[in-house]
Amino acid sequence: xxxxxxxxxxxxQKVLLSPPAVSMMEKMLLLDPEKRVTxxxxxxxxxxxxxxxxxxxxxxxxxxxxxxxxxxxxxxxxRHTFTEILTFKPVLPxxxxxxx
Length: 100
What we know:
mainly alpha, Kinase-like_dom_sf
């Protein structure tokens, strides 16, 4: 990043009409991950108020990092991916729209 030419910060208010949208983008586009909002924090921002229903939100299943650095052949990756698809069982939340 240090080798790239410096660019002036763009004025997001000229691109986005909504002040909550500008605030959300400024918090999400920070390069420093220590200062950038997490996904959970972002969902609490005013921009998302009309889109979210916290009662229907569930924690994501943990990500399995075990194969991140695995050196597998293409056929092994295909086999693993196919097995994952066949054995995947998503957690289905009760929805207000589908519950009786």
